Amino acid sequence: MRWVVVLLALLGAGCAAPAFSAEQVRLTIGGQPVVDAASLQARAEAELSYTLSFGYVARTSDDAVSCWFARTGRAFDVDTRLWCGPVQVPGTAATTDWVPVPLAEVGRGASGVRLEVGPPQVPAQGTRSTPVGTLVRTDGRETTADQGVGGAGPDFLAVLPDEGQDVDEASASVRDDQLEVRVTGYASPPSWSTAEGELRAEHGVALRVLRLRVVKHGEVDSAFLQTPWRGWLPQPPELALDLPGRRHPLPADRLPKDGAVLVVYTVPVGGGPEALVLNTVGAKSLEQRVEVPSGKAVGAVAGVLRRSAGPESTSASTPVALGSANGSVEVVRARLGRQRPVSSGDQYELATAALGKALLELRLQGRDLPTVLGAPITVDLVVVTLPDGTRAPLVGARHGGEAFPVAVVVEVPEDVRSVTFSVTAGTVVLPRLGSVAVSGGAPATVGLDF
Predict the structure, then answer these.
(1) Mean pLDDT for the stretch of residues 188-200
(2) With 80 as the cut, is the pLDDT of residue 247 above it?
(3) Is residue 8 part of a domain?
(4) How many domains is the chain built from?
(5) What is the pTM of this model?
(6) What is the residue-wise DSSP string for 123-157?
(7) CA atoms of 208 and 199, how far apart (whole Å)
(8) Structural domain contains residue 3
(9) Structural domain boundaries enclosing 163
């Protein structure tokens, strides 16, 4: 009769029964039973609570974060890590991530393998971490790593492709010589549709959406691709979103070289100040902050960095005679900034403008002139004149392999709106050509009203 009662109980619970139970299956590592596996889960969950409270990861569900074993093969052999989640690592996509927690073997006996829980290995900002295979718990539950899009809890921040969704127009910008970021849209939606599903904020937080237009000048501007450098290479700037109670770095590898991107994040209900922060690191470091979405600059900032860097191309030409050759030198691009790369012997280094000044780089191209390595010699004949008639101090140049430099860098007032460019007369000694006379013509005006 006792067996009949047991059978009826099992049949009655059939639909709610888990895939397995701790009484039926024991988790193993290398074929050996895991001793007190439920206790390992509980300890890992306690460790992860600190990770959540410090905002290193965000909740994606109203349910408590739990820790799971990952099956590595047949039966219930599992990995030597627990996987805790689902969560979201700020700076990744909107889909769920997992935090691995290592398990160290501390003993082995007749009862099985004894393990100790290590500190959670929290992925770096913008870096996903996900297990492979089926996740299991000692209470009999199974799940998969791909949980889709869940909720958005405190400290949630996703960097997503811009697919042209409607947001309100906004205007804020921050830049240095390697990175330019413009806020072109801002929204406070009740929910947000992603390719993987609908994202909703959990109780106590509200969603925000920023549309950013990004140009990584350090990757698309050939000036920063020169080698070798004197000392350290120019360090990539660091972009962050400063929110009430939290600063979130925006991972550089989640941002396009040249294009638009969406940042979806949460803030406490009731809001508070939001700002976009750009840190220029390395030589003559600088931090800039602008309010979002108003675009108001917070604190002192180099005036030239509140202006555009300039268009990708321009054209201003001045005639030049080099010996018997009559040609010209054309300005093909003008660039305003705070720092520019310049030649230093056979290396390159980063020049920085003085306070209240700007660096103006003029990219040059010779027309109908001899091909000769003359730039280090002719650079002093290149004259950039300011509106008041004075000559702009030469900070440096990049020489290249032509008769004149491929670029000259001069220091100008940060509010300058135009300069003139010319080549002055002189006699130089050039390779292959020997002593030759150089003469110039009418100066060309280079407009800087951008």
Answers:
(1) 92
(2) yes
(3) no
(4) 3
(5) 0.85
(6) PPTT------SEEE-TTS-EEES---S-EE-TT-E
(7) 11
(8) no
(9) 157-301
